[in-house]
């Protein structure tokens, strides 16, 4: 193991390269372009094809093609760029991927470099694609590798959401010396696997829901989701908001309150959340910028009969 001080952009880039990614596509836009720029400088060394595509839809379709061919692919977009990709994504969720396919989604709370400050997380619930949000660069490095593995294991694209604040964070990241060499899974030639049409779309949607149920169980076991501290008052830190809370309390362990760290934001680890709610009388949810997690936690509380 060797440690490097990396910002959030670089950590995601090294995580992808150490996962054996072979195709990286994007349309320029902060806060996701920094990851692409990092990979560009190292692309030849790692035998990676990198492309600035004509638009985000093209970038996504390139990534899907690479996945069908058995290669691992990373598609990097910002919030408004994700809107352009909705068309292929709304059928990609129904067609099991082959090579690992990860989407890096850069949201921009405060609109520091965007025409709006949309929160793209509610869109992900409609897309029904797993979404992770790292709390810091080190977590982002390992989470990217996990995302590629889970993508292939469950046959789904995986979204990693970051924000501008995450990209500017610096942290020492322990890294492997030898990059993972992803095997070529080969081109899949199953006629209807990647083609949802009226004859199979409903059945594929049923299979998607079964897959999401299994992913919910997986989310409950992730080390990125955990409870610490004690008390009847609870705080939920969603994604990078958890890191901002640690800055406020100077990185000390939670004292006088119970803290739930959430980094898998879809599907949420419902059993873990329900157990947390039962131990608390009051809950404060920290997130940027819409009440996405708060709304889902309220639904879990209602369904599980929690009185928090």
How are the strands of the biggest sheet laid out side by side?
3-2-4-5-7-6-12
What share of the residues lie within helices? Answer: 40-55%
CATH C-level category of the largest domain: Alpha Beta
Within CATH, the superfamily of the largest domain carries the name Thiamin diphosphate (ThDP)-binding fold, Pyr/PP domains
List segments where confidence is low: pLDDT < 50 over at least 5 consecutive residues. none
Find the structural class using helix and strand composition: alpha/beta
Question: What amount of the residues lies in strands?
Answer: 15-25%
Give the beta-strand count.
Answer: 13
**What is the CA-based Rg, rounded?**
19 Å
Overall mean pLDDT stands at 93
Biggest beta sheet attributes = 7 strands, mixed
Q: What's the CATH architecture name of the largest domain? A: 3-Layer(aba) Sandwich
Question: Which outline best applies?
Answer: globular
Note down, in words, how this protein is organized:
This protein has 12 helices and 13 strands. With 308 residues, it is an alpha/beta fold. It folds into 2 domains: 2-179 and 192-220, Thiamin diphosphate (ThDP)-binding fold, Pyr/PP domains (Rossmann fold), CATH 3.40.50; 225-304. The strands form 3 sheets. It has a 7-stranded mixed sheet with strand order 3-2-4-5-7-6-12, sandwiched between helices. A 4-stranded mixed sheet has the order 9-11-10-13. A two-stranded antiparallel ribbon has the order 1-8. Helix 2 (33-46) links the parallel strand 2 and strand 3. It is globular and about 55 Å long. The N and C termini lie far apart (44 Å).
